[in-house]
Design brief:
InterPro entries: Ald_DH/histidinol_DH (IPR016161), Ald_DH_C (IPR016163), Ald_DH_N (IPR016162), Aldehyde_DH_dom (IPR015590), Aldehyde_DH_NAD(P) (IPR012394). Helix content is about 40%, strand content about 20%. By secondary structure, it is of the alpha/beta class. It has an 8-stranded mixed sheet. It has a 7-stranded mixed sheet with strand order 4-3-2-5-6-17-18, sandwiched between helices. A two-stranded antiparallel ribbon has the order 1-19.
């Protein structure tokens, strides 16, 4: 007879996978990625600059080599099916994060690629699965169907990873019902804060590296930079000088920083933003939709909490001066920013104390790109940035599929004393 004072653990599905077998599979898959790295980079540079594609490859390999420790730490159950909406950016890294690593503990991973990068996603999938052992290759399936057609597949899955707009995430969550574990992976403005104790040169290097990652076509690129008034003039002048010497190159060139954008809606969105805010343009300010080019542009907005940048996905730099960090806290507590809080890069601003700014995680002297770790929960506490369904609603918090599956597996249902 069981003791009623002890917690009862209920299994989500079945027991967790064989860690030794998962270790061997992960190492073989990592080796396969390295063996075909030249062909993968050739495919990725159709939609990304070479440096970004190389970064994806290294992060994908790192995700796999770190997977055995991740599974041992989180003890996810063996899932029957995972359904994944692959994002249009960082295709290889996302394929590893949501496809290859979960295939170590999922019987089947069904991936729907984004229509924007469908051909590249299929090419990457074909190249990798052709080098996997048959059992591992059979676990990953890519299907080209509409979001509406994919919903019934998701409803019959143990877990769903959705990447896309928050409104679409909510609609899909209600459509698929309560059965699947549901993760919604979004993005945020990921601001950089340049404090009074920051060297302007070092700050500009950080800002340029973060904003120009893949020519600005990444959801982790900072859409706004808050600069203390003591550093504003120096930062503006140095950024203006650096942006003036950038030239457009081919995506396949290793030293290319600026390239034509991949998606027409990104160019159109940047063009509309620059036209609407022409009074704030310090340098640049033009966009050529026909050539898919956005000129590296620097804008300086008035001090205050009214500026809430859209996702720009382009080499556009938006600066907002500040003096008192309380302004930053007020900005971060606005309803919109609370929903999309993800990361804040704090440079030389000791007055930003604590772990979060609003719902965004403070990453000191590091950008959101630096914080990306495939084997650890990632994101902030904004529900639009990273949310998991609990008790019928999305809860914002840093996400990792294996950790969320492991939490759902072990639910305490008995009394604790």
């Amino acid at each position: 007879m069981s003791n009623p004072s002890m917690p009862v653990l209920e299994s989500f599905t079945r027991t967790w996978p064989d860690l030794e077998a998962a270790h061997e599979r992960a190492m073989r898959v990592a080796s396969a990625l390295l063996d075909c790295r030249t062909r993968l980079l050739a495919q990725l540079t159709r939609i990304a600059v070479y440096s970004s594609a190389r970064d994806e490859l290294l992060r994908a390999v790192g995700a796999l080599t770190g997977a055995p420790a991740e599974l041992a730490r989180n003890c996810p159950p063996q899932l029957s099916r995972l359904s994944v909406f692959l994002p249009p950016h960082h295709v290889l890294y996302s394929y590893a994060l949501y496809g290859l690593v979960p295939a170590l503990y999922c019987d089947e991973v069904v991936i729907r690629p984004s229509a924007l990068t469908r051909d590249t996603a299929y090419a990457v999938h074909k190249e990798i699965t052709s080098r996997l052992d048959p059992e591992m290759a059979r676990r990953i399936r890519m299907i080209d169907i509409s979001r509406r057609q994919f919903a019934p597949v998701c409803a019959e899955s143990d877990a769903v990873v959705f990447t896309g707009r928050p409104a679409q995430a909510r609609d899909l969550m209600h459509t698929v019902g309560d059965r699947p574990l549901f993760l919604a992976v979004g993005s945020g403005p990921n601001p950089v804060v340049v404090g009074p104790r920051t060297d302007p040169g070092a700050a500009c290097r950080t800002i340029l590296r973060a904003r120009l990652h893949n020519s600005g076509q990444d959801g982790l690129c900072p859409d706004v930079v808050f600069v203390h008034r003591l550093r504003l003039d120096a930062v503006v002048e140095q950024l203006r000088a650096e942006l003036s010497v950038l030239t457009v190159g081919a995506r396949s060139w290793p030293d290319t920083v600026l390239t034509p954008l991949v998606h027409e809606d990104a160019v159109e969105g940047a063009a509309a933003f620059l036209a609407e805010n022409a009074d704030h343009v310090v340098s640049g300010g033009s966009a050529d939709v026909e050539r898919m080019l956005v000129e590296p542009s620097l804008l300086v907005f008035p001090e205050g909490t009214d500026f809430h940048p859209p996702e720009l996905f382009s080499p556009v730099f938006c600066l907002v001066p500040y003096e008192d960090p309380e302004m930053l806290r007020t900005w971060a507590r606005t309803p919109r920013e609370l929903e999309r809080g993800m990361y804040v890069c704090a440079l030389g601003e000791p007055r930003l104390t604590g772990q979060t700014l609003g719902t965004a995680v403070i990453s000191r002297n590091a950008t959101a790109l630096d914080a990306r770790d495939a084997n650890r929960p990632f994101g902030g506490f904004g529900v639009h940035a990273s949310g998991v369904r609990r008790d019928g609603r999305l809860i914002g918090r840093p996400l990792l599929l294996s950790a969320e599956a492991g939490l759902r597996r072990a639910v305490i249902t008995g009394p604790l004393r």
